[in-house]
Amino acid sequence: MDWNIDRKISTVTVDNCSTNDVMMTMSMDKLSNTSLLLGGSLFHMRCCTHILNLIVKDGLDVIRVGVEKIRESVAYWTATPKRQKKFEETVNQLRNPHTKKLGLDCATRWNSTYLMLQTALLYKDVFSRLKNREPQYKTVLSEKEWEFAREISGRYKISVLEFYFRKLYGDKTEDEVDKVRQICYDLLQEYQH
């Protein structure tokens, strides 16, 4: 192949159009499976971003109130330099070792909601302390809302996958989750060598 492209491609992601299936089959005929990542098993990836986005938004809707409260808290403490300074001072007073900056999520990027939640969770005690010290700050999460945020924010990714795969695949859930788990292990093993 010109430019050794067969050694430079690991995956091609295309939408679910049937003409793309034909194009990918033709492309695979021209490439050597041995030079592709995992023997080409991941070469043709169907675009499932939209589906994934809907699934994640549905999952986030379960904890919508908690996410909105965290969003309001982050927005409040990042709105002005004075508030940011007060937040940082409280972080230092509580000897919180984390240095990540608070950041709001973006509606079109669901992973930004996860990042916002993960960062906010690092400062849970700071938000609680500031509620007592700042009369204008009205947003406080319950312990249950913090727990939901903790679960959704990434510690239980396979559990979340199992939950939604159960809705999609029913009795075949365990097999489908095992496939995803095995692909993750295979990728990790390939990158370690």
Layout of helices and strands:
Layout: E1 12-14, H1 18-30, E2 44-46, H2 49-62, H3 64-78, H4 81-93, H5 110-122, H6 124-133, H7 143-155, H8 157-169, H9 173-192
Notable characteristics:
64% helix, two-stranded parallel ribbon, 2 domains, 193 residues
In N-to-C order, the SSE pattern is: EHEHHHHHHHH
Radius of gyration: 22 Å
Q: Which structural class should the secondary elements be placed in?
A: mainly alpha
Shape: elongated
Helix content: 55-70%
Main sheet makeup: 2 strands, parallel
Total of DSSP H or I helical runs spanning 4+ residues:
9
Query: Could you tell me the mean pLDDT?
Result: 81
Distance between the termini: 25 Å
Strand content: under 5%
Strand tally:
2
Number of domains: 2
How is the largest sheet built, in terms of strand order? 1-2
Structure description:
This protein is mainly α. The chain folds into two domains: 1-47, no CATH class; 53-155, no CATH class. It has nine helices and two strands; from the N terminus they run βαβαααααααα. It has helices at 18-30, 49-62, 64-78, 81-93, 110-122, 124-133, 143-155, 157-169, 173-192, and strands at 12-14, 44-46. It has a two-stranded parallel ribbon. Helix 1 (18-30) links the parallel strand 1 and strand 2. Helix 3 packs across helix 5 and helix 8 (157-169) packs across helix 9.
Give a concise summary.
The chain is mainly α and 193 residues long.
